[in-house]
Amino acid sequence: MRGLDTRGISRHLEGYCQTLNEHSYLFSDALDNSALKLSTELLNEVTIIANSESLDDVKAAGSRAFLSINRFMPLIKDLSDERREKIK
After folding, report:
1. Which of 39, 40, 52, 78 has its CA 20 to 30 A from that of 12?
2. Is 34 exposed, middle or buried (0-12, 13-18, 19+ CB in 10 A)?
3. CA dist list (Å): 82 to 35, 63, 86, 88
4. Which of these, 17, 68, 58, 63, lies nearest to 39 by C-alpha position?
5. How far, in Å, CA of 85 to CA of 73, rounded?
């Protein structure tokens, strides 16, 4: 697709996934690791975005990636609030 840097978008998402993986220990429960789950979801969308020839496919994958990140944000806020309380 001309005019849309799908490879650049994919690289940015991969970088985000790498950061998630590096810090995933912060988000793990006994049986669940939400950061690793998010990373897996995003990497699936990266493949679609990087290889897509349809703008609709890129938009759909981008929307799914955004929603996945948006669902993860409350966990980050809770962790941040919890750490802030420990410092006080």
Report:
1. 78
2. middle
3. 17, 30, 6, 10
4. 17
5. 18
